[in-house]
Amino acid sequence: MSQALLLRTCNPDRTSSSYRLVNGQQTNADPFTWPAAGPVACTDWDPNPVCGGGLHGLLYGEGSASYLSWKPDDLWLVFAADPDSVVIIDGDKAKVPAAEVLFCGDRLGATTFLNEHAPGHVIHGITLTGGDRATLTGGYRATLTGGYQAILTGGDCATLTGGKCATLTGGHRATLTGGDRATLSALYWDGSRYRRRMAEVGENGIKAGVPYRLNERGEFVEVK
């Protein structure tokens, strides 16, 4: 697909909070209502890389996951825009003057649609399942499941499940479940910085088929 794809969330009635740019100043305005499908445009387009003045989303589902809503009833949208019109804001999100809504629904549907039409990106909230020797990558709150010798890489709060000899790498508060001889790697916050710890399934009490997460001391503990 030649168009750029963006991912965003909105309320169940398809509204989102709105900043309007008035004389270059951010001003609160009435909620913006997104269509369930079809063309959509903003009325206050500003090409400067600042919040407001455009239709905002995460380019290819990447960027800062803090701009997405994780409420179960909120809607997830995928919209397409001219790549030349995309303005990146602080590397965290993007905006465009006009777009076409291609998908409106739940998180699974939106992230699956995005991955099918623009594979190869680290999409927040995605659910991926692969077989033996699969290589799966997801962002914040991704759910990745692979088989024998799979390579799984997820972001913060991701859930990773791999088979025998799999390699699982997660972010902060990721949950890792590996098969026999799998390698587990995750981040924890020591009070001043993030640090990474690794473990091998079958060694030092780490059991196959059991979910683990790092505690505040950097120790792998079972997730009950």
What is the typical, i.e. mean, pLDDT?
A: 95
Low-confidence stretches: none
SSE series: EEEEEEEEEHEEEEEEEEEEE
**% residues in beta strands:** 35-45%
The major pleated sheet works out as: 7 strands, antiparallel
Question: What is the rounded distance between the termini?
Answer: 43 Å
Please state the structural category: mainly beta
Give me the side-by-side strand order of the main sheet: 4-9-6-1-5-8-7
DSSP strand tally: 20
Principal-axis shape equals elongated
Please tell me how large the radius of gyration is.
20 Å
The percentage helix is under 10%
Query: What is the total domain count?
Result: 2
Counted by DSSP, the helix tally is 1
Can you tell me about this structure?
The chain has one helix at residues 107-117, and strands at 4-10, 15-22, 25-33, 38-41, 55-59, 75-81, 87-89, 93-96, 98-105, 127-129, 135-137, 143-145, 151-153, 159-161, 167-172, 175-177, 183-189, 194-200, 212-214, 220-222. The strands form 5 sheets. It has a 7-stranded antiparallel beta sheet, covered by helices on one side. Strands 11-13-15-17-18 form a 5-stranded mixed beta sheet, with no helix packed on it. The N and C termini lie far apart (43 Å). It contains 1 helix and 20 strands. The protein has 2 domains: 4-117, no CATH class; 127-222, no CATH class. A hairpin with a 3-residue loop joins β7 and β8 (93-96). It is mostly beta strands. It is elongated, with a radius of gyration of 20 Å.
